[in-house]
Amino acid sequence: MSLTPEQVKRIAHLARIEVSEAEALTTQGHLNGIFELIEQMQAVDTRGVEPMAHAQDLSQRLREDAVSEGDRRAAYQAVAPETEAGLYLVPKVIE
Amino acid sequence: MTQWEVVIGIETHAQLATVSKIFSGASTAFGAAPNTQACAVDLALPGVLPVLNKKAVDCAIRFGLAIGAQVAAKSVFARKNYFYPDLPKGYQISQMDLPVVVGGQITLQVGAGDKAYEKVVTLTRAHLEEDAGKSLHEDFHGKSGIDLNRAGTPLLEIVSEPDMRSSDEAVAYARALHALVRWIGICDGNMQEGSFRCDANVSVRPKGQAEFGTRREIKNLNSFRFLKEAIDYEVQWQINEIEEGRKIQQATVLFDPDSGETRMMRSKEDAHDYRYFPDPDLLPLVIGSDWIERVRGELPELPQQKRERFISELGLSAYDAATLTASQEMSDYYEATVTVAGKASAKPCANWVMVDLAARLNKDGLEIAAAPVSPQQLGGLIQRIADNTISNNIAKKVFEALWNGEAATADEIIDKQGLKQITDSGAIESLVEEVLAANPVNVAEYRAGKEKAFNALVGQVMKAAKGKANPQQVNELLKKKLAV
């Protein structure tokens, strides 16, 4: 499998990365190189092998349901670009 | 003319009843000042890591057991990637390939009275995930305001199979699910606060066609009424489109309660490509059988079990049993009433709770938990009907007096207002004689074969007795006297 320049641009858009035409071509080459590696891996017979969800063979650590974090809004908002009435302000988004 | 069949599947987001968030120690309390409950993890500050809340998993297990589903021995958290300002990490932690709950089913009652029928809806899965924050688009000089208090709140997303065939079935399912999550204590069910919200996947197809039509998803319905209105509108819209020769495009739509219409939010072409992958920050969630058994031991008697017991132990009809187990409050109230009135009065208790109490609650716009008449008071009242102290009609007066807080018990009201039924046959006989003497026309009509005239005479006797005469005795005595 190899990617078309359009697919590269779509992936870049989904990741909100701006790429020029030239960069899209270089990236296409890099990504197709990675796909070659993936194809090699996919050629391996993995029947009977359980899919791995994590590199460490451990299970999830859990915490008790208790509130441990207080209100630190002032500290967090001191480094925010823009706030008002306790809200973080961002460029207008409407769906 | 094509006959259309409606196909509906529902995805529900139930907010889990934890005090802290699913992956952080910030509070989940509703209504706090903006961003005062958004900690470093919720804000996705660099270097933070999620740690899973055990109670959220407990809730998922409870739900899985309550619907007879498979609780996965191993489930995996995945990242669902998309960009939106109320999602600071740029991904939502959810579950994709290996959800915590698989399968299960819910039995529901659709419709009321003679038209009521039972339906079993199969569930596909339920998985744990975190909620996003809130965007406020009001006037912030052309900017949007972001409140991240809700970010990281634990949700159980419950997905049904496309088993519903009408908006009524969809609403019955949503109600049954809503009652269940509250019953087992995993969600407060507050729809105004967004604790329980539904997305409906709706499609239509010609009756008899095997494959489904193209579906459109109606997002974020936060009341049962909107759910019904939105589906009814959407179904009609889809049928019109197809009948006018257009094709349905897969899309996500929003329901506008003011106009009663659904409108397109995004079409499939720019639908999100979420690029799910296992979250490397979280290890697989392993649930051992000991954990599952502990949770099973903590489960209350479930609606379905209670329904079966009401039928076998108390002799109720399937319909009454289903109605009385529609919510935990309702079944608790009913059982407390029966405890006082006695099992022999189980059926009258059911009628009082389902008919008289329900009507009175409805009139005052109250929920059963807020009923001014307690189950103990109602049970005491039903005892007095059972032992013939008062008639059913007088009981309605006593009930009203209890409702208005005129006394603490039915007995007090019966005493104070002198409502005790007249069962002395001598006293009733003299009333009957007086009425017969005073109403020769009715007597003549009855003897001429008019059954209605008899009812008029019963009415007269009851009126003379101020409603307190035992109705059976009045009937018997009247018949006896008229037969002479």
Can you offer a commentary on this structure?
- The complex is a heterodimer of chains A (95) and B (484).
- Chain A has 95 residues and is mostly helical.
- Chain A contains three helices and three strands.
- In chain A, a hairpin with a 2-residue loop joins strand 2 (83-84) and strand 3.
- Chain A is flat, with a radius of gyration of 22 Å.
- The longest helix of chain A has 22 residues, at 21-42.
- In chain A, strands 2-3 form a two-stranded antiparallel ribbon.
- Chain A has helices at residues 5-14, 21-42, 73-78, and strands at residues 62-63, 83-84, 87-91.
- Chain B is α+β, with helices and mostly antiparallel strands.
- Chain B contains 16 helices and 18 strands.
- In chain B, the strands form four sheets. In chain B, strands 1, 3, 7, 8, 9, 12, 13, 14, 15 and 16 form a ten-stranded mixed sheet that branches. Chain B has a three-stranded antiparallel sheet with strand order 6-5-17, with no helix packed on it. In chain B, strands 4-18 form a two-stranded antiparallel ribbon.
- Chain B is elongated.
- At the A-B interface, strand 1, helix 3 and strand 3 of A face helix 1, strand 2, helix 2, strand 10 and strand 11 of B.
- Strand 3 of chain A pairs antiparallel with strand 11 (143-147) of chain B, so a sheet runs across the interface.
Work out the oligomeric state of the chains in this entry: heterodimer
Taking all Cα atoms into account, the compactness measure Rg of chain A is: 22 Å
Q: Strand fraction band of chain B?
A: 15-25%
The secondary-structure class of chain A comes to mainly alpha
Provide the residue-averaged pLDDT of chain A: 90
Counting DSSP E segments of at least 2 residues, the number of strands of chain A comes to: 3
Largest sheet of chain A, described in full? Answer: 2 strands, antiparallel
Q: What form of chain A results from the Cα inertia axes?
A: flat
